[in-house]
Specification:
- This protein has helices at about 30-35, 65-70, 105-110, 115-130, 140-150, 160-165, 170-175, 180-195, and strands at about 15-20, 20-25, 45-50.
- It is mainly α.
- The chain has a three-stranded antiparallel beta sheet with strand order 2-1-3, with helices on both faces.
- The relative contact order is 0.13.
- α5 (about 140-150) runs antiparallel to α6 (about 160-165).
- The chain is flat and about 65 Å long.
- About 45% of the residues lie in helices and about 10% in strands.
- The chain has three domains: about 10-70, no CATH class; about 95-130; about 140-195, no CATH class.
- It contains eight helices and three strands, in the order ββαβααααααα.
């Protein structure tokens, strides 16, 4: 079985803000290189579009230096093929944890196609797909919250906007941000809806 190659860190989609203004967006390397042409004393925050987390960048040196540093973040040591892999299926990312159920639950799971583990995975996937399909996903809410905490905590109506975000009410969330600088509201809305990914 072939594994899908991991996207390079330099290709991570991101958005940069100087104060409340969006100044660059795109792959991280492109954004980093664009930032080198700006005033070094300017406070700039770069956010990962998938998570809303701030990405720390070292912009010293020329384009080659920046690209080399970003490539180093991709460097992951290759596993030793002679080392034992132990139980489970590590290539699939399986994590073993304890689940406590009543005997009737175990009996029902034992009778399901593929056994207890496969049945639990199907049930979890069904529940995840059924979660509030019209509202923001939990990941989208968290991403928007991280971004807003870093950039909008002092703006009027911040607490009300966060309450609307976690209530899953995107129209009210957008309404609460209406008086804010447009770039902040637009980006937060994209993160909340998952469109920034």
């Amino acid at each position: 079985m072939t594994q899908t190659p991991k996207a390079a860190f330099a290709d991570t989609p991101c958005t940069a803000f100087a104060g409340t203004a969006r100044i660059a967006a795109g792959p991280l390397l492109d954004v980093a290189l664009a930032l080198t042409r700006r005033d070094a004393n300017e406070t700039i925050l770069v956010f990962a579009d998938a998570t809303g987390r701030v990405i720390d960048l070292d912009l010293r040196g020329d384009a080659w230096d920046i690209e080399a540093r970003l490539a180093q973040r991709d460097a992951v040591p290759e596993p030793d093929p002679r080392a034992g892999t132990g139980r489970g299926r590590p290539r699939l990312g399986v994590v073993a944890r304890e689940v406590t159920l009543l005997p009737r639950h175990w009996d029902w799971l034992a009778g399901q196609p593929g056994g207890a583990s496969a049945a639990l995975r199907r049930l979890v996937d069904q529940a995840r797909n059924a979660e509030n399909p019209k509202g923001p996903s939990r990941d989208g809410q968290e991403a928007a919250y991280r971004f807003l905490s870093a950039l909008a905590g002092d703006l009027p109506g911040y607490e009300e906007a966060i309450r609307a975000l976690f209530a899953g009410d995107l129209p009210l969330f957008q309404q609460r941000m209406a008086s804010w600088p447009g770039d902040i509201g637009q980006y937060a809305g994209k993160l909340a809806s998952g469109a920034a990914e």
